[in-house]
Write a structure and sequence with these properties.
The complex is a heterodimer of chains A (84) and B (417). Chain A has 84 residues and is mainly alpha-helical. Chain A has a domain at 26-82. Chain A has 2 helices and 1 strand, in the order βαα. Chain A has helices spanning 26-50, 60-82, and one strand spanning 7-9. In chain A, helix 1 (26-50) runs antiparallel to helix 2 (60-82). Chain A is elongated. The model of chain A has no long low-confidence stretch (mean pLDDT 86). With 417 residues, chain B is of the alpha/beta class. Chain B has one domain: Alkaline Phosphatase, subunit A. In chain B, the strands form 4 sheets. An 8-stranded mixed beta sheet of chain B has the order 8-7-9-1-12-13-6-14, with helices on both faces. In chain B, strands 2-3 form a two-stranded antiparallel sheet. In chain B, a hairpin with a 2-residue loop joins strand 2 and strand 3 (36-37). In chain B, helix 3 crosses helix 4 (103-111). The chains are: A mainly alpha (84), B alpha/beta (417). Chain A binds chain B through residues 1-3, 5-14, 17-20, 22, 24-28, 30-31, 33-35, 37-38, 41-42, 75-76, 79-80, 83-84, and chain B through 17, 67-68, 74, 78, 130-131, 134, 152-154, 171, 173, 200-201, 204, 206, 208-209, 212-213, 215-216, 219-221, 224, 244-248, 254, 256, 261, 263, 265, 267-268, 270-271, 274, 406-415. Strand 1 of chain A pairs parallel with strand 15 (411-413) of chain B.
């Protein structure tokens, strides 16, 4: 329970602290490179699935393998897009 | 087993960015009450610690740390720079001693300004950091928690997730070829729950290439963390990432970086730590069953007075070309000391975990202690992991039988709550 004796007030940053124009440091630049690499991996997965012609899938086993790969990619994409 | 351990259901880790122990907490050792040092067990500053500058002056630590605009340009914290900071400029070779005398010299290489290079010796007085200071003095602080590597962010954060950086000492993209699963894979594959909560999509995660492929199973946002705390749906293990950049929110409001990485605003980081703490603290069920570790990934090039100790190697070696020092690194010593605070109602007030200053009882901690603790507690140690992690100290022994009364425990008052 918060009582006057155990409440600690936390100061806010001064107005004007926000600076979207601050130069991005090495960490943030590195983050973008890592994300780009992750995107390439994602793209490679996508390309490998798109390379399959659905008309070539003859059996339920063929179809289920395709559906699994496609759904996994779409699921991931949807999750990232919606911020889940 | 203690009552605190019996009641434990959740381990939450909040990893901040790039501040040293002395910079954030060293001032606590100088607090005097009734003529005596109030926090004498904390291995902080005496006020006499110093470094030489490039002009031959002796530069003492100064209680003049500012929330922003003081450590710009960003202090060097890559492997060769940290080597200079720790060894004072003595080149790699047998018998050299870590003396922590190269911080000012190294910051001069960034600033090219002797006066500005002195800023690296700055520290905060406790009143400037009411959140971190309160948690440190009210719960448990580690005198000897070190970065896992004398290097930058990505490789140090890897230790928190895998117990190793797989031989990396820098920020490069790397792929994991060895069968050492991440903490999240270990947990989920064993039927347990685990999540990395990043702040939002504009901030995202620093654990990208190898873990992002596991979307969406192991990732959530900060707002989901808050909801999970309110709804009693928090996973057994949670790792929280602060906001890494200034950006506009969905409604156009200004969102400040809260990671405390120089030159981001330290007060915004205080706000973020307080919000994470309050989210747990204000749910009685969660509060009683959760331990929260607040730790920094590395020191960010900022002064600390404690020489990093040796450690169990993890079986990897970084080549001289990768270390940049002309010598290989066998992961046999730790990085610079960072703040680390453990929070639970079962931790006695004012607990100080001794570090390297106590030859008899001291324990050294580093980020491999995180997967070591989580794996030992939830998985009974059952996971493929490095010898380094297997030998790492764990920290749940700090939970006692006695639950502290609610009125004895701080609550942070922020805007909007």
């Amino acid at each position: 329970m918060a009582t006057p004796s155990n409440v600690i007030h936390v100061p806010e940053p001064e107005p004007g602290s926000y600076n979207q124009n601050r130069a991005a440091g090495k960490l943030l630049q590195s983050q973008t490179l890592h994300l780009r690499e992750a995107l390439i991996q994602h793209l490679n997965d996508l390309v490998s699935v798109l390379a399959i012609d659905p008309r070539s899938l003859k059996t339920e086993g063929d179809v289920s393998g395709y559906v699994k790969k496609a759904t996994a990619i779409l699921h991931t994409h949807a999750a990232v897009s919606s911020g889940k | 087993m203690t009552t605190g351990l019996n009641n434990l259901k959740h381990i939450v880790v909040l990893m901040m960015e790039n501040r040293s122990f002395d910079h954030m907490l060293g001032g606590l050792s100088l607090v005097v009450e009734n003529g005596e040092k109030k926090y004498h067990k904390i291995n902080g500053l005496t006020g006499d610690e110093s470094n030489p500058d490039t002009a031959g002056n002796v530069v003492k630590v100064q209680p003049n740390a500012r929330f922003q605009s003081q450590l710009d340009p960003d202090p060097d914290h890559h492997f060769p720079g940290v080597d200079l900071q720790v060894f004072g400029g003595t080149l790699p070779g047998p018998g050299r001693v870590a003396n922590m005398q190269g911080f000012v010299k190294d910051y001069f290489t960034q600033t090219n300004d002797v006066k500005r290079s002195h800023n690296i010796m700055s520290y905060f007085t406790p009143d400037k950091l009411p959140v971190l200071s309160a948690l440190t003095t009210q719960f448990a602080v580690f005198n000897g928690w070190f970065a896992s590597i004398p290097g930058p962010t990505i490789c140090n954060r890897a230790f928190a997730h895998y117990g190793t950086s797989f031989g990396q000492v820098g920020m490069d993209i790397f792929y994991i070829l060895d069968p050492i699963p991440s903490m999240y894979e270990r947990m989920t594959q064993a039927g347990h729950t685990a999540k990395i909560y990043y702040y939002d999509q504009q901030s995202s995660t620093m654990e990208v290439v190898n873990l992002l492929k596991n979307q969406p199973e192991i990732f959530g946002s900060y707002s989901q963390f808050i909801a999970d705390c309110q709804n009693n749906t928090l996973p057994e293990y949670s790792f929280i990432e602060p906001c890494y950049n200034d950006h506009l929110g969905p409604g156009g409001g200004e969102i400040l970086a809260s990671d405390q990485h120089p030159d981001h605003n330290v007060q915004e980081g205080e706000q973020f730590i307080a919000r994470v703490y309050n989210a747990i603290r204000t749910n009685p069920t969660l509060w009683e069953s959760t331990v929260l570790l607040i730790v920094y990934d590395e020191h960010g090039g900022i002064y600390d007075h404690v020489p990093p100790p040796i450690c169990t190697p993890d079986g990897y070696s970084a080549k001289p070309a990768d270390t940049g020092t002309g010598e290989a690194f066998n992961f046999d010593r730790l990085g610079v000391r960072v703040p680390a605070v453990l929070v639970s109602p079962y931790i006695p007030k004012g607990t100080v975990v001794p570090g390297t200053e106590d030859a008899a009882n001291g324990r050294a901690f580093e980020h491999a202690c995180i997967p070591a603790t989580v794996t030992n507690f939830f998985l009974k140690g059952d996971a493929k992991r490095t010898i380094r992690e297997k030998n790492a100290n764990t920290f749940l022994d700090l939970l006692s039988d006695q639950k502290r009364s609610d009125g004895d425990i701080p609550y942070f008052k922020l805007r909007g709550n």
